[in-house]
Known about the structure:
- The chain is about 40% helix and about 20% strand.
- It has helices at about 1-10, 15-20, 30-35, 40-50, 70-75, 80-85, 95-100, 105-120, 130-140, 145-150, 160-170, 190-195, 210-215, 240-255, 270-275, 305-315, 330-335, 345-355, 395-410, 455-460, 475-480, 495-500, and strands at about 25, 55-65, 120-125, 130, 155, 175-190, 260, 265-270, 335-340, 360-370, 380-390, 415-420, 425-435, 440-445, 445-450, 465-470.
Amino acid sequence: MKDLEKLIESLHPLERKVLPFIDNDVNAETIIKKTNLQEIEVLRALQWLQNKKIILVERTGNEIIKLDKNGERYLNIGLPERRFINVLRDNAYSLGEIKTKGNLDDNEANISLGILKKANAIKLGNKIMLTGNGKILLGREFPEEALLKKLPININKLHDEEVDAFHSLRSRKDIVKSDLVRDVHVLLTELGNKLKNVKIQDNLIESLTHEMLLKGQWKNKKFRRYDIKADLSKIYYGRRHFTNEAISYIKRIWLDLGFKEMTGNLVQTGFWNFDALFTPQDHPAREIQDTFYIKDPEKGKLPNHKIVGNVRLAHEKGIKGSKGWNYSWKEEEAKRNVLRTHTTVLSAKTIASLKNEDLPAKFFSVGKVFRNETVDWKHSFEFYQVEGIVVDENANFRNLLGYLKEYYKKLGFDKVRFRPAYFPYTEFSVEPEIYHPIKKQWVEVGGAGIFRPEVVVPLLGRDVPVLAWGQGMERSIMEYYNIHDLRDIYGNDLKKIREMKLWLK
């Protein structure tokens, strides 16, 4: 009994007004009329009562067919086809005469012609006359006419002939329309039936005011009890896509380590994407099955002649200590536009822009790259790459490993190891691996190394150690978000985005 009293004391004023008018299987519209409350107030009260398990609410939707503006007019003066054949009751007439006598506009006359011809009700000539079938139709009601007289009506109550008539009328302008009418039915639960037999006070105080405190008016007053455990509709706050939250955090890691951000276009020439990185023009990575080439514009502009000449020389003959690739480098091939296959293109451009007084320098980028891959749960044709370079006379291989270990440590991976690797534009080269604590295995997450002189000298003008890395972002964040399909990282499932936990490290 005490629990029942507490429940009664917690009822909102709207609930107190609505509850006395609830009997088994009453609808919301009836309650609105009896209480003189607004629809939104009644629906809100019903929702609260349902949350308290006092009532059950059943919502149904019915499609109701109604007369539209032309339908109301035709109900009074007759459908165009009815007025058309009525004119021909005693005589044959030309179309112009029929339009005048039947008060038909051009559109109505044309529609009537089509309908009556299809029904074999008229014979066309210099003058239009009724056929035998047309004379029968004079004394018979069209299904469309019968339906207009029955409106409004629930679409589920139509029989087959009426369904056909409805579709016929709906295909014509502004004769009928259908509205979805939602109906809310309310049923009392066992708890609700108990409450019906209890007197419910309506003089409980909702809130404590400043005046009550000053004058002591709160004494001996009864306040409404608040249920802090009541179920409420979840409020979704505004937030960025969870992938963008992770990107912002990754950018903050590198900014905190003293790096500057690099940015650039998604479309680049093959020169910057491949040639400047000492990738030969017959390398498999440049094949169409691996790279997206742009059709329009097919080619772009190359940088100044000095840089182009230096890169050509590195490819054809090499620089000091290198033999190059020993082939004829083609400028036209270098001009071809591609969707960048790695953000290392930004590193090459940045190195080419540096002056001696800019050194030492550290740069990073987090950007999309594109590969011609078949899409499945672990592969995508677009993904993010975390790029970084350190241009420093005193930089060494151990510094490179240190930067990467620190980065992955800040992402929550304490176990990092490195395997020897090969890339055309770095030497030494390594592939970092992080230990997956759930799968109990090592996962490769990118590539890194020290740029070869064949990359640095043509762009910078001298050989300076450049630490470089390009790390895949997706694998680093999939575990945190408990994502097992790479495609979900870029999806726009609103429910998933709302419920995904915040990126907190």
